Structures are given as C-alpha cells and as structure tokens.
Amino acid sequence: MIDSTGLWRYDIGVCYEELEGKETVLECIVTKFGGSSLANDEQFRKVRSILELEPTRRYLVPSAPGKRFKDDEKVTDLLYRCHDLAAEEKPIGAEFAKIRDRYLAIARGLHLNLDVEKELDQVEQGIAGGQNRDWCASRGEYLCGLLMADYLGWKFLDAAKGVVFNEDGTLNDEKTQEKLSALLADGESAVVPGFYGALENGQVMTFSRGGSDITGALVARAVKADVYENWTDVSGFLMADPRIVNAPAEISSITYKELRELSHMGASVLHEDAMFPVRQAGIPTNIRNTNKPYHPGTMISRDAPQEIYVPTITGIAGHKGYSVISVEKSMMNNEVGFGRKVLQVLEDKGISFEHMPTGIDSLCVVVPTSALAPYREEILETITGLVENRGTVSVSDNLSIIATVGRGMVHNCGTAARLFSAMSRARINVRMIDQGSSELSIIVGVNDNDFEATVNAIYHEFVG
Amino acid sequence: MIDSTGLWRYDIGVCYEELEGKETVLECIVTKFGGSSLANDEQFRKVRSILELEPTRRYLVPSAPGKRFKDDEKVTDLLYRCHDLAAEEKPIGAEFAKIRDRYLAIARGLHLNLDVEKELDQVEQGIAGGQNRDWCASRGEYLCGLLMADYLGWKFLDAAKGVVFNEDGTLNDEKTQEKLSALLADGESAVVPGFYGALENGQVMTFSRGGSDITGALVARAVKADVYENWTDVSGFLMADPRIVNAPAEISSITYKELRELSHMGASVLHEDAMFPVRQAGIPTNIRNTNKPYHPGTMISRDAPQEIYVPTITGIAGHKGYSVISVEKSMMNNEVGFGRKVLQVLEDKGISFEHMPTGIDSLCVVVPTSALAPYREEILETITGLVENRGTVSVSDNLSIIATVGRGMVHNCGTAARLFSAMSRARINVRMIDQGSSELSIIVGVNDNDFEATVNAIYHEFVG
Q1: pLDDT confidence of B201, banded at 50, 70, 90?
Q2: Buried b (16+ CB within 10 A) or exposed e, A18-45
Q3: According to the per-residue pLDDT averaged within each range, which of B8-22, B384-398, B449-463 is highest?
Q4: Whether pLDDT at A24 is above 60
Q5: For testing contact with chain A, the best of B328, B430, B458 (most A CBs within 10 A)
Q6: Closest to B414 (Cβ–Cβ): which among A396, A424, A435?
Q7: What is the SS3 assignment for A419?
Q8: Which of residues 311-350 of B touch A (CB under 8 A)?
Q9: pLDDT band (50, 70, 90) for residue A273
Q10: Could you give the CA distance from residue A262 to residue A403 in angstroms, rounded to a whole number?
Q11: Which residues of chain B does A333 touch, with a Cβ-Cβ cutoff of 8 Å?
Q12: Which of A8, A14, A207, B198 has the highest local Cβ count within 10 Å?
C-alpha cells in the first residue's frame, strides 16, 4: 500500500476507502503529536513536513516538549517542580531557566517572530505568583502550541476556551463538543494545545498525564475529522508485550473493540478516554511514528476494514494475579438465582468479576487477587452461607488470564485447536477457558508461572 | 478383575477396597431389581442365584414385573388402567385378570406356598372399591415384594411403614431414615417393595415412575450398606448416547459428580433423587445387568477409585435448543454489578442460566430457548434498558451445548488441544467454550446442526 516514491495521499486515501468501503476524498485530518515529537526544533520541522505531505491535516494538538535524549527532562516535569518550589515559597528562577532555554532554543532554531520571552515571563510570573498546580502544568502545552501556531502560520485556540471540565474534575463532554465545534467552525487550520481545559469560570484544569490524546480525540470529533492521527515515537502497537515476546510484530489494523480488549487485559495502548469520543463518532485513529512518517502505523477503526488478508489473531495480552473462588453446591443448577447471589456478595464489596465459568452444580468466579484481599475471609464466609452445608467453597490464587484477540478468529474453526495444541506442546495446563459466542477473543487461565510461556506459545503459533 | 471361574466375591471385594483404599470385608449390600429383572419366574430365579453368589446381598428392593417381550404390558400400566376403569365405575375384572395371571404364573413357576390368590383378591377389591391412584399403582411392587420374600424366605417390610411422605407429595427424608433404619435394625434379610411409601396417616403415596431406584437408595442409606446394587437389563451406563454414537463403550467407573454432570446435560442415567441419599452417605452405586451377572457394570462412587488407568474422559452428553443473549456495553468491565443485574432480570422470570461467558465489555448468557420463550421480548427490553444506549443486546438461537466429562482431564494439558483439534478436523465451528478451574468437564457450544458431528468427533478422538 505504501509507495516508496512518496504517494502518501494515495496511501491514506486507500486506508480510508477500506474503512468505509467506498471512494471518499479525505477532507480533514486531526493530528496529535506527542512530547518526543516536539522535543526540539528539529522535531518541529519533521512535524511541519508531515503536515505539508498531506494538506488535509488541518488541526494539530501538541503535547509539551518531551525528552531530547535519555536522561533529559520533560518540560511538564520541570513545570511541576517550579510549582512545588513556589508553593514552598522558594525561588523558581533557576528551575524555570531550564524551561525558558527549551522554548527559546526552539524559537531560535525555527526563526520565529513570536515574542516568546514575553510569553515565558508571564508564565514564570504566574507560577511564582501562586497559580495552582493544573495551571502551571498546562503551560507546557500552551507555550508549545503558541510556538507551533506561529511556525505553521495557523490559528491558535487556547484549550481553556474549548475544553470544559466539571467541578469534580471530569470532562463535560457535551459542553466541550458544543464549544469546540463552534470555535473551529470557521474551518481555519488551528493548533489546540493538549492536556488541559477549564471550568466554566475559566480556572484551568488538566487531564491525567498523557491526556493530550484525549484533547486530540475531542478536536477530531468536534471538526468531524475523517481520521485522527496520533503521532508518537513508535510505529503503532505491538501484537504482544515486548518484555515477554522477543520483537513482536506490529499491528497494522485493529478495531476499537479489539484494542479495548487488549487494553483491558494489560496491553499498554491508548487511554480509554482517548478512544471514546472518536470511537463513538466512527472516526478511525491512526497511530503513527513522527520519525518514520511513511510507515502506515496502526489503524484503529470502528468496523474492521474489508481486507483481503485478515490475520487470525490481532494481539495477545494478559495479567497475572487473579484468584478463583470455586463454589460447588449439590443441585446448584436446579436453583434459580444462585449465580446471581454469589455475584451480589462481590458487588456488595465493590468487586467487579472478570469471568464466571460454570460447570454443573459448580461455578468459579475470577477476580483480581488484590481486589479480593481486603474482604477475603468475609466474602468466603458469606458465600459459604449460601451453600448451606450442601457443598464447598474454596479459593485458589496465582491465576494468570490471557486474552487472544482477533476478528479473524470468528468462524475460524481451527483457532481453538491451534491455540490449545500450542499450549499442550509447551506442556502448559489449562486452568480455565472462556469464550462467548459473539466474541473476538479466547480467554485462557493458567498458573502464574506459566504466564510468559503461554503468551509465547500462542504468539509463535499464530505469528511465527 | 473378573475371574471367569466365578470368583465373584473377590471381584466385589476388590471394587470396594479400591473405593476406600483399604482392605474391608463387605458386610452389607442392598440390591434393587428393575421390572425387566422380575418379569417372570425365570427372572426371579436369576435374581435368587445372584443373591446366592454373594451372601452379603441382604436386602432387596423390587420393582413391579415389567415386560417379558417387546409388546408385553408392564404390571404398573395394567394397574393404572384398572384404576381408571374403576374411577369411571366400569368393571375391572377383565383387565385385572391379566395382572392376576402374571403373578400366578410366577408363583406357580417358583412353587410358592404363599396364598397369592388371597392377596390378589384384596388388591382387586381395593381397586374396585375406589382406592386412590397411588395405592392402585403401588400394588405392583407390593405383590412382587410379597412373592419375592416368600421365594427367598426373607422378611417382607411394607414400604408404607418405612418410607414417609409429606402432605405435599415430597419425601420426608429425615423421618424415612429414622423409620427405615429402626425397622431394619434387626439385621434380618428383607424385601422392601420399591416405588411407594405413605403419609404419616398411612395413606399410600408413590414416587414418580422409576421411583424404585429411590427406595433402594433409601434402604441402602438406612442399613449403612457398603454398596447399593441397581440391577437392570443393561451392563451399566454408556459413554455417549447410542442414538448418536454407534455402539458407545460402557463406563466402568464414574463419580457421582461426573454422573450428575452427564445427567444434567441430557444423559439418561439415574434419577437425581436416587443418587442423593447414597451419595450423601458415601455409599457407592453399582449398576448391574441381571442377565449378565458377572459383568462388573458401572461403579459410581463419591470419590474416584485409585485406578492405575484412568481414561481421559468418562462420558459425553449434550443438548440442543439453547439461546444466547449477547450483551455488549461500552466500558462494561469497569462497572461493578452489571453481570449481576443481567442475571437478576432472568431470575425475576424464574429462568436459570446455564453459562455466562464473558469477554471484555461483553457477556453472553446461555439459557434454554424454551425457558426464554414466554418472556423473550420483555427480557430483551429490560436488558436493553441496562445497556443505556451504550451497547447492543441480541439473541441467537440454535445453540447446542456439549459437556465432555472426566476426572482424567484434570491436570492433563493435552485434553483441550485434542478436543478442539478433533472438532477442527470435523470442520465444526466453536461458538462457546466454558471450563472452570476446578472442573471435570469442558463445555463447548456449537450450532444445533453440528451437534451430532461434535459428539462423534469428541467420542472418537478420546475413545477410538
């Protein structure tokens, strides 16, 4: 799909066409660039050339400048430190000088006309003057956005005007959509800094760390983007955890649902809140590498593209540290409501169960060991009461759960056979299996000390 | 284990020793003989020779005489017909003559001294005189027990004195245990007719058809039997339904729990109520063939015997006709109590669920289609309400569930692989998998039209 001579537009066009199953001219792409993509003036130049490759890239959401080298400091960390110094009524000058140098170096390198010194002075005065923690942290993205807008010659939209928070610190999704879409309705190319917004009274609030991904998704939804491009320093997501599997393959295409499954099972991917707005709006997210702009990255879409070749599995993810509460009760299956009562006991302690495999007159409830711990004895006692001397209740720990996810598994009659054969060859005992009928995943439970071996066995069976 | 020269006692002894893991002298066996084992005088003779082979067989629970040939009538059916005639105030003489002939032929063939005519006259008068349906039906076992006690020279204990029913027609388990054990405390060999008992006021009540199995289990528990032998016309249970698998192998040894799993999934084995008393008391049940008295049959025990060779699977059973309610809800896994709420909806309609496989943000509930039918729309509507426009609810029908049961599966890392490979070779798509961590079974869901092929594929993989 990639033409090495640089037929970039064609590439994107094909991706999008596949998603919708029809010829469509791409009209609007929202881009978000992470901190490492904006660490210095050289990275800013890469960003501009990426935007120039595809003129429909008309919105940009920047993070704050990240690390330029391994032991470098992120601007956001420096800002937090300045705030903490100010809160202790200590001078911030020396620390703020590091921030000042970072932005000045970028502005110099790009020959910007913007009066960066003046902006920096205002930020320094704000921090020293006792602005709150969120305001201080948000200045990294704010300043970065100012510089980028000047460099690109685009409009700068302060996120405090478009991203609305509730008093409790959560996003006001509805108001944000209303305000952002109004502010960007003129169609003018714009830079909207990530990570922060404001209460309706104007007080700046931030998302949790990494929240620029969320801002990007909100902007993409507001302008009805065709694609939301999330530019990072990796060429998309990997099929398995590289700490477990040696050099796992990249995922070229995945659905939001598959990604959510992998994410829930421990894969480190996008923040859930950064998927929700675009997933709802049917906008695909494309994870891209700023340092390899021609690499297609990972395309995340609501519906799977109509590919000719669909790999059987999309990814593998898992977790150690689950406990299994096993309940046997004579004639349980003839008793309406027993399973519900067991779940109620957990719910009363605020514990969410992961799986509930059921046999005849027996059921198991799989929960995180850490969630069970504070109430372990109490919960066992209550469930033992439900059993009424007609069975047994026991708990076993050290269960790992591994999800093998892939839309190619559906209606593929050999998938389960291959998966369990691979585990059998690796001499791994299966403690639990859970596969629902509408599922994109097979979930297996193994002993914690078989966790890594299981992930590898499954990976190498399906990926090679 | 079987010595063809007839070392029968040794054989039983070994069985029992295996069950308890120690040398034990068998002191007491309770036998129950089914209708076909008591159909005529020749069968009575077989019964006596079986009892003589093993003197510790000291109690006998008979059914009523069954069919002697394919189109013959069972005595119990004839008795019901007499009752119905009497209820319509029609003469019963011609119909009762058939019953009379059956018992007289047995008594003649065995040269009994008992005044059978007198007993038959009393029964006929009782039916004609308006005795209730249960009393009439129970006379088949009553008369059969009288004849057998006379033939063996054993004590006859009328079940009406020892088996106590509650007013609502259910068994009074506690009183029955109390009375039966007191009445049999003298240790004298006794015949106790099956199928019936009485209210405390003496009114005769029957179990459901086939209830003599229950009487046998109650007697076995009352006398603390070492083994409860259930003599029938088959040499034990089969590993699969012979209507699906051609000439399936017999099960030589099985636990009550395994049997319950197969029974619940549709295998036609013992009535649940006939297992409960002996299972609780730790008494093994031995299914035997009256016509092949040296065949060891199927031994059902509470704990698995310490066999040298444990077959991987014990049996396969399944059902067609399930429906799957599939629920997807965005971020469901982050919501405590959602699964419980879905089960509550079913419970409110008195529906028991079979399985609940869960994915990430999705769950399926498997229920019998027939149980769902009367409330289908209402239940879907209620669950749709729980989803709050953040997901979908759908139902698909025509799911078969197949349980592959076997204690040899535990800690056998290749079982799942073999099972799913066999299904894959047969081109069967897996719609659902459920295996809990303490389970003796793997449960798979397939399309109804793959049901027979699945049972055969699994059977031939493990049994050959």
Answers
A1: very high
A2: bbeeeeeebebbbbbbbbbbbbbbebbe
A3: B449-463
A4: no
A5: B430
A6: A424
A7: helix
A8: 324, 326, 328, 330-331, 333-337, 339-340, 343-344, 347, 350
A9: confident
A10: 7
A11: 264, 352, 354
A12: A207
- Tokens 């049996």, residue? B315
A424 — contact with chain B (CB < 8 Å)? Answer: yes
Residues in chain B closer than 8 A to A258 (CB atoms): none
What SS3 class is residue A44?
helix
User: Among A113, A133, A136, A116, which Cα is nearest to A125's?
Assistant: A136
Question: Does the beta carbon of A413 lie under 8 angstroms from any beta carbon of chain B?
Answer: yes
Q: Are A58 and A228 in contact (CB under 8 A)?
A: no
DSSP annotation of B180 = H
In chain B, the N- to C-terminal Cα span, in Å, equals: 23
Q: Is residue A114 predicted with pLDDT exceeding 50?
A: yes
CB atoms within 10 A of CB A293: 17
Q: Which two tokens stand for residue A63?
A: 């993070």
If you average pLDDT over every residue of chain B, what do you get? 89
For chains A and B, CB pairs below 8 A equal 215
The CA distance from B199 to B166, in Å, is 6
> From B424, which residue of chain A is nearest by alpha-carbon distance?
A414
Are the Cβ atoms of B438 and A363 closer than 8 angstroms? no
Q: Residue B97: how many CB atoms within 10 A of its CB?
A: 14
* Closest to A423 in 3D by CA, of A451, A384, A381, A389: A451
Lowest mean pLDDT among A23-32, B144-153, B293-302, B412-421: A23-32
CA dist B358 and A445 (Å) reads 13
Task: Say yes or no to pLDDT of B352 above 50.
Answer: yes
Return the DSSP state at A408.
G
| pLDDT for the residue numbered B439 | 61
pLDDT at B410 over 70: no
CA dihedral sign of residues B76, B78, B81, B85: negative
B450 in contact with A at a CB cutoff of 8 Å?
A: no
pLDDT digits (tens, 9 = 90+) for A288-336: 999 999 999 999 998 766 665 667 889 999 999 999 999 988 878 778 8
The pLDDT score that the predictor gives to residue A6 is: 28
Angle at B74 between CA B78 and CA B172, to 5 degrees: 85
- If one counts every other C-beta atom within 10 angstroms of the C-beta of residue A256, the result is 22
Greatest pairwise CA separation for chain B in angstroms? 81
> Does A420 contact chain B (CB < 8 Å)?
yes
Residue B332 is predicted with a pLDDT of 82
Instruction: Please say whether the dihedral angle defined by the alpha carbons of residues A265, A266, A270 and A274, taken in this order, is positive or negative.
Output: positive
> Which B residues, 272 through 311, put their C-beta within 8 Å of a C-beta on chain A?
272, 276, 279
DSSP string for residues in A142-211: HHHHHHHHHHHT-EE--HHHH-BB-TTSSB-HHHHHHHHHHHTTT---EE--SSEEE-TTS-EEE-STTT
Its ipTM equals: 0.76
Residue with tokens 């993989």: B461
Task: Give, in degrees to the nearest 5, the angle at Cα B411 between B409 and B416.
Answer: 55
Does the CB of A260 have a partner CB in chain B at under 8 Å? yes
Quick check: A447 and A429 in contact, CB under 8 A?
A: yes
Task: Please check whether residue A46 is in contact with residue A91, taking contact to mean a CB–CB distance below 8 angstroms.
Answer: no
